[in-house]
Write a structure and sequence with these properties.
16 helices, alpha/beta, 378 residues
Length: 378
């Protein structure tokens, strides 16, 4: 079996940027050993040439060293088609042929108090969260609220370990005792960004680090896009917290849309460039607005009770005149008021207030001031 793993590892590196070819070859021949013996389809020059490189003595030597290094570092290799391979990711045509995983198995962990120890990468309840690297206070608070809202369902929270919304999502998951997985755009011989090394150590103990890239691969631009497709594909739903109209988060949302995943977006001020992307996704009906604690569980069928009547579900524009008036009464001209104070004064939930603030701003009745404050528009 070890020889088979070495052969598959060699195939994985050769077809790193065309994983579907390796998947098809393995499905056709049944094992990497049979693929090597057959040398692929003689009618396809690309496959024959690629397999010749993959099974060369130099490549096999590298693969053997790679497998040995993974064993010493406690890194597991998951191949497409295996039981431990993430099931939703396996449904995608461009799924990685091989994954590197460093972390807990989700079953037997007995670490920090509150950790629920679910099913690791195969947790049937899985949510990915992405957003801008320039996260505001509002964005970081939104991460805590979203994760806190779904914590009782014990989901796996997936993100990319990057600055801003990614790391805020991981930290929120850790604080709520949830498993969290960071998908990296590089090999597991380095942590990117290096400043999040301590967070990565905590994540390994309460989830894991995941990548399709072998050691030595640096976080190049193309690898971020490949990483983003995994973040989108591995989960039932994608939550975009803060995002500009262009960037990695919107690319991830596009992947999620192509994979038929549920997409949610946290609304933001119309004047905030870091919320343009979220508001755009909502306005174009690509994403559902995240404005209540039941948004994700209800959409994904996590709760045991019957699904709520769609007519009663929150809409982009609620036209809740009474509650809007409550909000307006708490605001004054030229005296910025934060969203938390508005919630305290009105007794309304954070998500509902955020939604109505967006509506009021779109209506031209209020304006955003700073990162999280609002006041009446003169």
């Amino acid at each position: 079996m070890e020889e088979e793993i070495v052969l598959r590892c060699a195939m994985a590196r050769e077809f790193l940027y065309r994983p579907q070819v390796a998947v098809q070859l393995l499905q056709r021949f049944g094992s990497a050993a049979c693929v090597m013996e057959s040398q692929g389809d003689e009618d396809n020059a690309f496959v024959v040439e690629s397999l010749s490189r993959a099974f060369s003595s130099h490549s096999l030597k590298w693969a053997a060293e790679e497998v040995e290094w993974c064993a010493k570092k406690g890194i597991r290799l998951f191949f497409y088609g295996e039981q431990e391979y993430p099931p939703l990711l396996a449904e995608c045509d461009d799924a990685p042929f091989m994954l590197y995983y460093k972390g807990s198995d989700g079953y037997n962990y007995k670490g920090s108090t509150g950790y629920k120890g679910n099913a690791g990468l195969c947790n049937p309840r899985c949510v990915s969260m992405v957003g801008t690297r320039l996260a505001s206070v509002y964005g970081r608070e939104a991460c805590s609220i979203v994760v806190g809202d779904i914590a009782k369902f014990s989901p796996l929270v997936v993100s990319g370990l990057a600055y801003g919304i990614d790391i805020a999502s991981h930290r929120a998951a850790l604080e709520n005792g949830l498993e969290t997985v960071a998908v990296l755009p590089n090999g597991l011989d380095m942590i990117y960004p290096a400043r999040h090394r301590d967070d990565a150590v905590r994540i390994v103990g309460q989830g894991g680090l995941l990548t399709e890239f072998p050691r030595g691969v640096k976080p190049q631009k193309v690898n971020f896009v490949k990483r983003n497709r995994i973040i989108a594909a591995i989960s039932q739903a994608l939550v975009v917290v803060e995002s500009r109209v262009k960037g990695g988060s919107m690319i991830t949302a596009e992947f999620a849309c192509n994979y038929n995943r549920d997409i949610f977006a946290v609304p933001g001020r119309v004047s905030d460039p870091n919320s343009f992307g979220c508001n755009y996704l909502i306005a174009k009906n690509v994403a559902a607005i995240y404005n209540s604690a039941t948004a994700i569980p209800s959409a994904l069928g996590w709760d045991a009770s019957p699904m709520p009547d769609p007519a009663l579900q929150p809409k982009l524009f609620s036209f809740d005149i009474e509650n809007k008036e409550k909000i307006l009464l708490t605001l004054k001209f030229d005296k910025p008021t934060g969203i938390e104070r508005i919630c305290a004064a009105t007794g309304l939930e954070w998500g509902a207030v955020a939604s109505m603030l967006l509506e009021l701003e779109l209506e031209g009745r209020i304006k955003g001031v700073g990162n999280t404050d609002y006041c009446l528009r003169r």
